[in-house]
Design a protein that fits this description.
heterodimer, A: 110 residues, mainly beta, 9 strands, globular, B: 124 residues, seven-stranded mixed sheet, four-stranded antiparallel sheet, 11 strands, 0% helix
Chain lengths: 110, 124
């Protein structure tokens, strides 16, 4: 049981847009910054979004992040087959004094 | 370019210990933390803890307290994670990651570079 809640899977057609939600509480998302990671099959996770909505150098602007209250959302536009991966949200939980992750969302590009 | 290169796969028996290394390059090692994250087969990410490469301070996940030790060797820019009293449910890929954390009223934290992962298999 993960501290942060993500949908197990989402899907959309190439070229379309998809959003992935991440729900938490006041001890984590509500009061700390959120990051998002992409894990392609068989590879290490890769940072996509940090500080709720910032993209590291090299991450295309097709990827965006937002936060409202105790929830965060990852948006991906112009979907490509290469975007098929697992996506994880993460943040610090001040009550647990630990980094916590969502359970991951598998994106399928149909 | 920032790189984290981890040691190779390990097979251990229940009750044994494992020590995984993570050699950093491409940045000033002591200016960042190193965190360890593991992923059991087919499962999600689990944070294990982190160590400040600046002063060696550590913060471990509560469920691993007493079994895990994280250290660094600043002379070789290498971080280590040792896990003792291994059980079958410790079988996982273990990742090191460069860890950014700061307090600006809120806590800002994220993992910006990751190692390639080390598979640790615990089996009798």
């Amino acid at each position: 049981q993960s501290v942060l809640t993500q949908p197990p899977s989402v899907s959309a057609a190439p070229g379309q847009k998809v959003t992935i939600s991440c729900s938490g509480s006041s001890s984590n998302i509500g009061n700390n910054y959120v990051s998002w990671y992409q894990q392609l099959p068989g590879t290490a996770p890769k940072l996509l979004i940090y500080d709720n909505n910032k993209r590291p150098s090299g991450i295309p602007d097709r990827f965006s992040g937002s936060k409202s209250g105790t929830s965060a959302t990852l948006g991906i536009t112009g979907l490509q087959t290469g975007d098929e991966a697992d996506y994880y949200c993460g943040t610090w939980d001040s009550s647990l004094s630990a980094e916590v992750f969502g359970g991951g969302t598998k994106l399928t590009v149909l | 370019q920032v790189q984290l290169v981890q040691s190779g796969a390990e097979v251990k028996k229940p009750g044994a210990s494992v020590k995984v290394s993570c050699k950093a390059s491409g940045y000033t090692f002591t200016s960042y933390g190193i965190s360890w994250v593991r992923q059991a087969p087919g499962q999600g990410l689990e944070w294990m803890g982190w160590i400040s490469a600046y002063n060696g301070n550590t913060n471990y996940a509560q469920k691993l307290q007493g079994r895990v030790t994280m250290t660094t060797d600043t002379s070789t820019s290498t971080a280590y994670m040792e896990l003792r009293s291994l059980r079958s449910d410790d079988t996982a890929v273990y990742y090191c990651a460069r860890y950014i954390t700061m307090v600006r009223g809120v806590i800002i934290s994220y993992f910006d570079y990751w190692g390639q992962g080390t598979l640790v298999t615990v089996s009798s």
